[in-house]
Amino acid sequence: MKLNKTLKKAAVAAMAGAMVVAMGACGGGNGTNADKTKLTFLSWNNEQTMKPYLDEFEKENPDIEVDFSYSPPTPEYIQTLQTRLVGNQAPDVFIITSENKADLITNQYVRDLTDEPFMKNISQANKDFVSRDGKVYGMSVSSWASGIIYNKDLLAKVGAKGVPDNWDDFLKLCAKLKKAGVTPFLETVADGPSRIPDAFLGSQFEQDKVDVTTLVDKRPQTPGTDQKEAVKAWMRLYDEDLVTRDTVGISGDDMKTQFINGQVAMICTGPWDLPSFSESSLEWGMAPMPVLSKGQVNYAQGSPSPAYAIYSKLKGDKLKAAQKFLTFMDGEWALQKSTENGDAITVDGFKSKVKDEYKTVYEENVRTGHYFLVMNFYAKPDVLTTVRQSETQQLVQGAVSVDQWAKAIDDKMASVK
């Protein structure tokens, strides 16, 4: 088997340098282990998070012992996993996600799960996340989606009760707020590109009936061109002087702090920030992201959770144990535990209890699969993330045009083999 450059680099990495914290059998494991099937699992959730799942799994499957190890996400986990794969020490179950799925699928390290019974109720969007050529290589059971967080009192100053559902009206609201002396909107471009163009592109792909699972194989890769119109529309915030160009130096924490302090009417973020808003004295709400054009299906920027994968060479009792483990992680007990931990479950037939403010986004975006994240569907997501970040900062600062932004991204993607 011919290995790609990334895997070759991993092969020469010393095993001692791979940060794997072996926990052994994390479950109860009382009595002799001689007659048990040992299942190795490399997790990027730590022992504290995973131990309840492993204890319950071993309780329900006393003939299986889980040999648990941990490596933190994301670059370190991928390095560790690749080192183990090329060193013939592959874990039986491991994580497949945006940054490693192309390598894992191309090099045939992951088992095709398409027809497995435990995949029956997995959301189509979660399947698409780890699919190629109509085959699904991982099981993802939850997702997240972003939205517009708004200060009810500040919006009320201009007679608004909520966030408009389309971009033109959203910009009009921003203009009204600014005229009234209220900072209308803030986002961070220091931590990453704006979330808004991803949402716009998701709606556009839906309208154009684009199969997003084919984008990774498209040659040449043209994520810049594909998102150019969405970015032009988003840049109206800056071109119409509705948002400060200082966002290039504003972090996500800075943005959140300004919102909590009542200094800005609206921000764009995801569910991870909601507890902070709930702990504040603000009257706040969360709305779906506005669509670019009226009549389009609403999309958010969002993504499925990393998926569980099974090593392709497993067979016999080892394979059966791995299949049982994924069946368990897709079952009622594990899904309930995950929703208690704050995950928004997307499995058909199971509904997470989420914060009241998040319910609309959960129902309209998360559960329907109406969310999109650019880096999930193009080749070399690490390269794409880096070039989009640098070029977007240049764009916001006025150093390049949208056409130049798009060309720089496409040229960079074309230069990477």
TrEMBL record:
Keywords: Cell membrane, Lipoprotein, Membrane, Palmitate, Signal. It comes from the Bacteria. Residues 1-24 form the signal peptide. The keyword Protein transport does not apply. PANTHER family: ARABINOSE-BINDING PROTEIN-RELATED, POLYGALACTURONAN_RHAMNOGALACTURONAN-BINDING PROTEIN YTCQ. This is ABC transporter, solute-binding protein.
